[in-house]
């Protein structure tokens, strides 16, 4: 690891085809597609490491994550996300000199109803078709065809256009929709369709105030309309539309507490409002509300990597505002959410990148403050190295993404080149995992793009004393068998709790030749090994080992 620190700037990145969200090295949003992101086996803002995060709207009409909308891939790999800028410092070695760099998470919000799908697009429900859900794109397309020559088909609503207009009359939400002014023709056309849909849902709610589907879809219309409004618009403002959308989501979830999509998109709308308020007390309250809604979304859909990624991003934002005494706890919670997202989808490169950026920020804070002083703090140098591992992995999975490339240039020197990870594990004698605990030895291991290898140092033994009476030693050249796991032979990598293992955090690497058991010094150290090995395997499985090899051996 280098001992010097570079002072390049990390950029908050927003990919045109991939959305991103805010946070260190630039956190990346959850998706590369329309509001949704998908999980898989593994996939950060240099000159500002950007955390890529995505808050994707379930039913968003956007094709890549943006602003907590599916990031290119977060908005998971879903939409273009806007990274939030964090200013982590890059350090090499335990006491590297740090240069302040802006590492901001990439923000990408994925709006989606099905967080686990490759794309999260806002889902809307058509009243005349039961509970069948439609993506916002499908709905817009159908509404356009319904309009035809300007007269919607009667099947859209049992009410006439006149009754729909009456239902919308004196409605604050419809008033906001009707006052939206869009400059370009494409935007005007899109807004006409959104306004038509808004009238439809206003009419549906007029008929049945307890129609949670109509309330949810209306909220989506308001949220989509907010994206159609320019940032400097005053009448109506983007915030006005998002606030009204939040009210509709609130009503919908009150009527149907199990509406996962509503909690998810509601959290994205709240996050968008929080971003407009900087680092103020009001923003803190909004970010807290967003994290609460992401938590509810995850409780309803525990396998949503997108919601977990966005939850981590919201926590990362919150950590920049809360009092210093609370910051570390919030940051560590964010780390746990990104890690959970990755373990659901190993190639979720946005969450991988975002985890790298939040670790980078934690390293910077630890270096600046000296840590909590409880003796359990990970040294800043180790945190920087961990950050570099995730950023390198994200780049390997998505080498064409400029945000990752820039971040990698900033942190590459923090890797234990020519390896990806170097550390200690306790291992049994080769081929004898049932050996007595006294025979297990704590030794150094090296991980690169091809294998995990145990490194045995030559043993020194005393040979006698020279004429001066000093003991002379010489190293033995006896070749010993070492533990070696080829990446291509891995079947699975899991934690292992077994009484036959020595005390510590157990690790089981199942290979085509049988299991290999190792023990990490702590459960926190085990997390690092688990992720690193799984990421290297995922990179191999995705056919990107040559990219990783170029990073660590070049």
TrEMBL record:
> Where are the compositionally biased (Basic and acidic residues) regions?
30-72
Region Disordered, residue ranges: 1-87, 100-175
InterPro entries per UniProt: Endomembrane_traffic_mod (IPR053277), TPR-like_helical_dom_sf (IPR011990)
One Pfam match: TOM20_plant
Compositionally biased residues, Polar residues? 11-29, 105-122, 152-169
Origin, by domain of life?
A: Eukaryota
Kindly provide the name given to this protein in its UniProt entry: Protein HLB1
Organism classification = Eukaryota, Viridiplantae, Streptophyta, Embryophyta, Tracheophyta
């Amino acid at each position: 690891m280098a001992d010097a620190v570079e002072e390049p700037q990390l950029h908050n990145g927003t990919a045109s085809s991939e959305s991103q969200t805010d946070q260190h090295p630039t956190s990346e949003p959850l998706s590369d597609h329309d509001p949704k992101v998908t999980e898989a086996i593994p996939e950060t803002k240099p000159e500002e490491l950007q955390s890529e995060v995505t808050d994707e709207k379930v039913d968003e009409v956007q094709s890549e994550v943006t602003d907590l909308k599916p990031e290119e891939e977060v908005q998971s790999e879903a939409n273009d996300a806007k990274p939030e800028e964090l200013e982590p410092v890059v350090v090499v070695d335990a006491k590297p000199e740090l240069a302040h760099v802006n590492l901001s998470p990439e923000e990408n919000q994925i709006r989606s109803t099905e967080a686990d799908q490759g794309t999260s697009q806002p889902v809307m429900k058509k009243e005349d078709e039961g509970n069948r859900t439609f993506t916002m794109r499908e709905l817009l397309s159908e509404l356009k065809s319904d309009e035809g020559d300007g007269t919607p088909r009667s099947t859209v609503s049992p009410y006439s256009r006149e009754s729909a207009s009456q239902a919308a009359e004196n409605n604050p939400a419809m008033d906001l929709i009707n006052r939206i002014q869009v400059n370009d023709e494409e935007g005007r056309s899109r807004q006409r369709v959104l306004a038509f849909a808004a009238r439809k849902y206003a009419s549906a709610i007029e008929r049945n105030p307890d129609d949670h589907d109509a309330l949810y879809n209306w909220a989506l219309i308001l949220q989509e309309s907010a994206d159609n409004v320019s940032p400097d618009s005053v009448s109506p403002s983007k915030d006005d539309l998002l606030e009204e959308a939040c009210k509709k989501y609130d009503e919908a979830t009150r009527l149907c507490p199990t509406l996962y999509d509503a909690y998810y998109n509601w959290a994205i709308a709240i996050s968008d409002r929080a971003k407009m308020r900087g680092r103020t007390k009001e923003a803190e309250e909004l970010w807290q509300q967003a994290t609460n809604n992401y938590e509810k979304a995850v409780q309803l859909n525990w396998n949503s990597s997108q919601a977990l990624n966005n939850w981590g991003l919201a926590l990362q934002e919150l950590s920049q505002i809360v009092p210093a005494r609370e910051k570390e706890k919030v940051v560590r919670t964010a780390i746990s959410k990104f890690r959970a997202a990755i373990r659901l989808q190993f190639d979720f490169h946005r969450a991988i990148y975002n985890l790298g950026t939040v670790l980078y920020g934690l390293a910077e804070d630890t270096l600046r403050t000296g840590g909590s002083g409880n003796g359990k703090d990970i040294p800043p140098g180790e945190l920087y190295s961990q950050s570099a591992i995730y950023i390198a992995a994200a780049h390997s999975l998505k080498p064409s993404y400029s945000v990752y490339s820039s971040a990698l240039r900033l942190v590459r020197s923090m890797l234990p080149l020519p390896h990806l990870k170097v550390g200690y594990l306790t291992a049994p004698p080769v081929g004898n995992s049932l050996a007595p605990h006294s025979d297990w030895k704590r030794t150094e291991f090296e991980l690169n793009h091809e294998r995990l290898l145990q490194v045995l140092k030559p043993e020194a033994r005393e040979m006698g004393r020279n004429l001066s009476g000093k003991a002379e030693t010489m190293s033995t050249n006896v070749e010993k068998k070492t533990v070696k796991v080829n990446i291509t032979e891995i079947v699975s990598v899991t934690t292992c709790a077994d009484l036959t293992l020595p005390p510590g955090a157990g690790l089981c690497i199942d290979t085509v030749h049988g299991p290999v058991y190792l023990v990490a010094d702590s459960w926190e150290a085990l997390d690092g090994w688990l992720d690193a090995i799984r990421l290297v395997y995922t990179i191999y499985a995705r056919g990107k080992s040559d990219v990783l090899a170029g990073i660590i051996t070049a």
